[in-house]
Amino acid sequence: MDGGPRVPEQRRSGTPEEAVPTAPASGLRFQVLGPVHAWRGSEPLAAGSPQQRALLAALLLREGRTATAAELIDALWGEESPSQALAALRTYASRLRKVLGPDVLASESGGYAIRLPRRDALDLTAAEELWADAEKARQSGDLCRARALARKALGLWDGEPLAGVPGPYAETQRARLEEWRLQLLEACLDMDLEQGCHAEAVSELTALTAAHPLRERLRELLMLALYRSGRQAEALAVYADTRRLLADELGVDPRPGLAELQQRILRADPGLAEPSAPAAEPAAAPVRPAQLPATVPDFTGRASFVRELSETLSAASSESGAGGVMAVSAVAGIGGVGKTTLAVHVAHAARASFPDGQLYVDLQGAGPRAAEPETVLGSFLRALGTPDSAIPDSPDERAALYRSTLDGRRVLVLLDNARDAAQVRPLLPGTEGCAALVTGRVRMVDLAGAHLVDLDVMSPEEALLLFTRIVGEERVAAERKAALDVVAACGFLPLAIRIAASRLAARRTWTVSVLAAKLADERRRLDELQAGDLAVKATFELGYGQLEPAQARAFRLLGLADGPDISLAAAAAVLDLAVEEAEEILESLVDTSLIESAAPGRYRYHDLVRLYARACAERDELRSGNNESAMSRLLDFYLATAAGVYAIERPGERVLDHLALGAYPGLRFSDRGQALDWLFAEANGILATAQQAASPGMLRRAADLLVVSADLGESGISSRQCVLALTSLIESAQTAGDAWAEGRARVTLSHILEVSGQFDESDAEAERALLVGTPIDDPIVCSHAPNQRAIIALYTGRHREAEEHLTRALHAFQKDGNKPGEASVLCNLSRVHLATGRHQSAVALAREGLTIYEGDTSGRALRLANAKYALGLALTQAGDITQALATLTEALRVFQDARQRLWHGMTLYRLAEVHLADANPAQAAAHAEQALSVLHGIGGDWRRANVLTTLGSGLHGIGQSGRARVCWREALSIFDERGGAEADDVRRLLSAVPAS
Predict the structure, then answer these.
(1) H helices within 918-960, ranges in order?
(2) Quick check: helix, strand or coil at residue 443?
(3) Are 802 and 786 in contact (CB under 8 A)?
(4) Contact between 839 and 878 (Cβ < 8 Å)
(5) Which residues fall within 8 angstroms of residue 117, CB to CB, at 6 or more apart?
(6) Which segments of 104-261 are extended strands (E)?
(7) Which tops the pLDDT comparison, 639 or 714?
(8) What is the CB-side half-sphere exposure of residue 254 using CA atoms within 13 A?
(9) Are 413 and 434 in contact (CB under 8 A)?
(10) In the beta sheet, which residues pair with residue 108?
């Protein structure tokens, strides 16, 4: 590729040799992109003294050409060669020949040459070939492959090239190879930005600009990455820092390209918002989603509707037409009327008019929990090529980015099964050339600009034609009257007709008359066949009535659970069956299409089928109490299994002794990774089950389930769902007068709110938890609530109050015999001492807490990492930098392994503080950048402001004062808004570094 980085040419003398046959030295490998090494297979070979390695390197870098003795002496010693240089050279060559073999090191015309068995036997050659392939891939538009190949080439470096090799030749080659490595890095980062990985590139570019402050191309890439990450002020600050540095160090101005980029950022040039490629390269093809479900091959009738919608879509997609939004809906909200089938059929027919892609989503509007627009927007943005790191958090920002991404494209959006117009509006394109098809149960008269279509059931002729196409013309022709009876019994509802016809087609021994007779029996279908949603239930009754008793029971009971899907083990608990028996029944239900296999070992209902299953359960199971028993077993299963995960994560924790465990057992895990995998995979089911447990007999177990599942909220993955479940549970507990359940739910909610940075709300919940938990002497509430209040007091600068709360928590933990809880209090107390200047006692308290954990848990336990975190903070303030770094690094590994994003990010932040204390601002800035990335979307603004303050200090330390001020100003605005005392510290930093 023109303009791409190439290996800088080395000076060559003499004439290239004729091609030589490949030497029979298979298995030999050589390294020069690091210390000079040689291997035969996996066995390392002795390369000898530094001068002997210098000879080997000089011959390897000549790529098989012969080097004369004079050239080699000059390469090894330069102008200061010893008197016996030629003899020494021959000795080195002889030793190398013994190691490598005579076929590899050849003597020719008084000189020497190395004949490599294959080109990639030398790491440098392999890197060159990888980069050549990367250039080809980039030219062909395959940017993903180009990036992978380029990164693979960079991965061949093992430190400084020719490390430890003496001589002027080695010194020259070292500089040459290091320059090429930097060019490769710049090219890789350029491709990263082309693919939208702006946020990820900032951390690496920050470290590189610190290491190579005068390299303007790196500064240019950093400016672009910051700008595309929404950090315009920092991008401009990089330019100001660069201009000042170049003037101070070299007395020159930035090169024109850098100055031009600064002006484009000041103008907010729209061209910077999209990745740009060199003009000589073909533009990378935009992501073209094709998400439409398959159209049914036997689509029947609806000719007028197809024509009406197709004409509207055609007008929307034409160059001169105005973009429109259209909705397909059923006037009475009848399920199964064929809204989705019609919309998918029309959308497929219109694909050619929308060459930039088609998006599809089932909005689940008919179910109890419709899809959230912000979640759908995230999925659509990913489908349109937006990386996760560039997707905003707020729904409004996502909607705006979605409309911007669609601007200039011709994309069709199919929004299926919508709840109402409010759910749809954020998902509509905003420009001409795009169009949307919306299906739903309600007539969306309040969807401005929509073209409304009222879809009714089929005509008798259309219904019979659909039935015939599925069953076969021969069978229907022989029993036409019976076929008419069947479609009439189905109410001419397309879904009912399709189900009936498909079952008949699958049973060759049945006649049409047999099916008609079954449908004629009103005991096997609902009387409400002609009205509303009951028509859909009637179609499902046909299949449900054919089930064996065990299958029917499973179908009814499994529909009670609210989660989006259910695992095999959880289903077995609902059914009170062995896993093997449950799997056999579930797979037979999959065969009947009454449930779906979402993934191996996971099952789900279509939302309408779930409603039908619940209606069956209410009809057939309510009097026997089987419904509540089934949900009770599911709650027991989740509680027992989650308690086991909690025990693995927090061995010795007394919380487990105070749980209201039920009779049904859970899964057991011997491996910590498997335990966490289960917890996070079952998050939706756990939280939905806890939220459903509104009956007095299940409230305490539901509260305990959320206590031992707190990692779901602490990880940041399910914080919102946790808050919703806990809030619902608290309301139910208050209604039932269950102080036990209410107190535990409140203390858990307090913890989740604290993790998300909502300190006032968290403190209020912990206080309420104590009000209801103290009179009944609940050991969980009485110990954890004051500990939680202490943490909030510590964060908000109320240190005396924090110490009082911790004293109360310590007494409660000691009374309960909870040693890990006692250790937690000591670690928190260490942080209070630290905040009040008592550094030595802070270290002692943290060590005391750590000792308790070490005596009661394994070294990998999560709480042990919390103790090391506290100790690392204390050691930092006490000036023991080396030990602080080691302790925090150990904690970091555990938090990463435990998927604790909050503590992972906060430990990176604390490591940045340690590096600042150790006068290592480059490492501080790098760790702070990583912390910002990990804490994205979790931890709240207060924690973000603290990280920004440290990042600013690191940037100032590496000469990027402009960026530093931007970070400090953002932190100051957060602290001022929250009324934090930290604002004064940030103001002092800003006043000490005046704007340039």
Answers:
(1) 921-934, 940-957
(2) coil
(3) no
(4) yes
(5) 22, 23, 24, 25, 26, 27, 28, 104
(6) 105-108, 111-114
(7) 639
(8) 23
(9) yes
(10) 111
pTM exceeds 0.85, yes or no: no
Residues 6+ apart with CB under 8 A from 737: none
Tokens of 522: 């009103």
Distance from C-alpha of 612 to C-alpha of 627, rounded to nearest angstrom: 15
Can you read off the two tokens belonging to residue 385? Answer: 């090529």
Quickly tell me which residue has 């490591």 as its tokens: 911
- Among 320-334, 352-366, 586-600, top mean pLDDT goes to 352-366
Residue pair 217/209 in contact by the 8 Å Cβ criterion: no
Distance between CA 862 and CA 380 in Å, rounded? 36
**Cα–Cα distances in angstroms (integers) from residue 713 to residues 512, 638, 689, 754, 934, in the given order:** 55, 16, 16, 10, 15
Residues 6+ apart with CB under 8 A from 30: 36, 37, 38, 39, 56, 60, 116, 121, 122, 123
CB contact at 8 A, 473 and 497: no
Provide the H-helix boundaries in 836-981.
Answer: 839-856, 862-878, 881-897, 901-917, 921-934, 940-957, 961-978
Q: Going by C-beta distance under 8 Å and a sequence separation of 6 or more, which residues neighbour residue 110?
A: 68, 69
8 Å CB contact between 380 and 361: yes
Beta-bridged to residue 107, according to DSSP, are 112
Cα angle at 334 between 329 and 339, to 5 degrees? 40
Tell me, what's the pLDDT at 567?
A: 94
Burial degree of 764 (CB within 10 A; 0-12, 13-18, 19+): middle
Say which residue the tokens 């003398």 belong to.
13
CA torsion, ordered 125, 127, 130, 132, to nearest 10 deg? -70
The C-alpha atoms of residue 228 and residue 387 are separated, in whole angstroms, by 12
CB 916 within 8 A of CB 964: no
Tokens 């759908």 correspond to 376
* Cα–Cα distance for residue pair 890/853, rounded to 1 Å: 15
Give tens-digit pLDDT for 372-423.
899 899 889 988 888 877 888 888 999 999 989 988 888 899 988 887 888 8
The candidate with the shortest Cα–Cα distance to 372, out of 305, 424, 414, 335, is 424
Query: What average pLDDT does this structure show over 666-691?
Result: 90
Q: Can you tell me the distance from the alpha carbon of 820 to that of 132, in angstroms, rounded to the nearest whole number?
A: 57
Rounded to the nearest 10 degrees, what angle do helices 759-773 and 739-755 cross at? Answer: 160
Cα–Cα distances in angstroms (integers) from residue 384 to residues 56, 313, 411, in the given order = 52, 21, 10
Angular region, 42: left φ>0, alpha ψ -120 to 50, beta rest: alpha
Q: What was the pLDDT predicted at 88?
A: 87
Indicate the range of 578-582, 611-615, 921-925 predicted with least confidence: 611-615
Report residue 269 CA to chain centroid gap. 30
- 528, two tokens: 């409400």
- Tokens 């979605």 belong to which residue? 402
How far CA 572 is from CA of 520, 603, 634, 902, in Å, comes to 36, 12, 9, 34
Q: Do the beta carbons of residue 45 and residue 39 sit within 8 Å? A: yes
Which amino acid, residue 758?
A: Q
CA torsion through residues 860, 865, 868, 872, sign: positive
* Integer Cα distance of 401 and 358 in angstroms: 17
> In a 10 Å sphere around its CB, with 0-12 CB exposed, 13-18 middle and 19+ buried, how is residue 42 labelled?
exposed
Question: Which string of DSSP letters, residue by residue, matches 680-722?
Answer: HHTHHHHHHHHHH--STTTHHHHHHHHHHTTHHHHTSSSHHHH
Q: Which letter does DSSP use for residue 994 in this model?
A: -
Tell me the C-alpha distance between 481 and 515, whole Å. Answer: 12
